Amino acid sequence: MSVPTTLQPFPTPPSPADGALPAADLVDHYGRRIRYLRLSVTDRCDFRCTYCMAEDMTFLPRGDILSLEECLRVVRAFVALGVDKVRLTGGEPLVRRDILWLIERASSLPGVRELVLTTNGSQLGKLAQQVRDAGVRRINVSIDSLRPERFRAITRTGSLDKVLAGIDAAIAAGFERIKLNTVMLRGVNDDEFEDLVDFAIGRGIDISFIEEMPLGDTDHARIDTFMTQDEVLPRLQARYGLTATSENSGGPARYWRVPGQATRVGFISPHSHNFCDSCNRVRVTATGDLYPCLGQNDMLPLLPVLRDTAAGLAAEDADTALLDAIRRSMGIKPHGHDFDMRKPTPAVVRFMSMTGG
Ligand code: SAM
Ligand code: SF4
Q1: Residue to mutate (ligand 2; options 56, 92, 163, 355; most atoms within 8 A of CB)
Q2: pLDDT in tens, 277-301
Q3: Are 248 and 254 contacting, i.e. CB atoms less than 8 angstroms apart?
Q4: Which CATH class is domain 26-355?
């Protein structure tokens, strides 16, 4: 692939005077400052988790997907506008060819405080050390079951052994923090939450439990499996004596500590403990669509700005056009999601794998 050797920085935002926000910073209509970009680098995945995808998925043609150079341009533009945390996600980010090229460059951009990654773990056995060396300090690994057959049923194609080997490879690679992500699914994995916490404690890593969201038409009856934090937290508190902590990682999870252990137990609870008021994030899909909210359909396509507009402009003007488009997206950031698990068809038809988790 062609690798640009000299990347000119985007214009630096002016420094704040008297504590005011720099003019270039991204602040939406509700006064929320955007510091966190989640970038989906592919809609493809080697798993087909029942709550995330349909069994039969049609993936996007490769020409519709941002090139890695375009991904880097997007990251640089957001960083110029005050974003300092970037999560690469998907689909499965580690099945994207040459992803290490992007990780290396994005993690070393001045202004990027943290480049993090969410993965299903299937490729970590071979890639964990390279991902760490390329500059990822913290990593999230999704795992919904520790039972091989159940794991296979949830992921439809995944191998638990491979993911467990991937988690061990990540531990050996020396990530500063590793967090497991588990979607709470009644009647599917709700008898394993303690096993999963014990697994995390045994390895000195964190774990977050996620409330399922109605994203995409997945031929899986979400209302039957839906569980909330309010049901699971008391159960785990009784077992582990969890203590609340105000620690956070700049994302939506709220954490509890397991006394005497390194492990923190988190919950991501968009239904029962809505966190929209403090949302600091936007998402860009693999096709360059900028979604200011995971749970709404408002979006601003960046691909035309990256490709068509840029084609007719000098590099500097193309940069300005991209920055302007991103700034404009603040005008369409909704106040919050309207997730309703009772509706037979979800209001948001995009699969989670499309927008990026
Ligand atoms: N493939 C990677 C993985 O599985 O970690 C990254 C992308 S995946 C979409 C990111 C996270 O979203 C995973 O932890 C997954 O369990 C979660 N997820 C997917 N669909 C979801 C849904 N409908 N509700 C809640 N979480 C979901
Ligand atoms: Fe793939 Fe992650 Fe979605 Fe599972 S949750 S199908 S691993 S993108």
Answers
A1: 92
A2: 888 899 999 999 999 888 778 889 9
A3: yes
A4: alpha beta
